């Protein structure tokens, strides 16, 4: 019988074919936080060197 429940019921519990995108979300969140931190603090860290080089 091909009803609504014919295709794996694991999507709601985080198991099965659809659980892989859910596993990628935390990795993308961490990547965004790290990249914004690098962009935000790069000028603060490099400021003395830039000032010394350019006068």
Secondary-structure map with pairings?
Blueprint lengths: L18 H36 L1
Give structural attributes.
55 residues, mainly alpha, 0% strand
Structure explained in plain terms:
- There is one protein chain.
- By secondary structure, this protein is mainly α.
- Helix content is 65%, strand content 0%.
- It contains 1 helix and no strands.
- The chain has one helix spanning 19-54.
- The chain starts with 18 loop residues before the first helix and ends with a helix.
Q: Concise description?
A:
The chain is mainly alpha-helical and 55 residues long. It has one helix spanning 19-54. It has 1 helix and no strands.
The stretches of 5 or more residues where confidence is low (pLDDT under 50) are: none
Question: End-to-end span in angstroms?
Answer: 77 Å
Profile the largest sheet.
none
Instruction: Count up the helices.
Output: 1
State the secondary-structure class: mainly alpha
Provide the succession of SSEs: H
Approximately what portion of the residues adopt beta-strand conformation?
A: under 5%
Rounded to the nearest angstrom, the radius of gyration is 23 Å
Q: Helix share of residues?
A: 55-70%
Mean pLDDT: 78
Q: How many beta-strand runs? A: 0
The rough form would be described as: rod-shaped
């Amino acid at each position: 019988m091909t009803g609504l429940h014919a295709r794996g019921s694991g999507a709601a519990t985080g198991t099965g074919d659809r659980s892989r995108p859910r596993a990628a979300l935390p990795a993308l969140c961490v990547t965004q936080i790290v990249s914004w931190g690098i962009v935000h603090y790069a000028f603060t860290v490099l400021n003395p060197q830039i000032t010394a080089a350019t006068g």
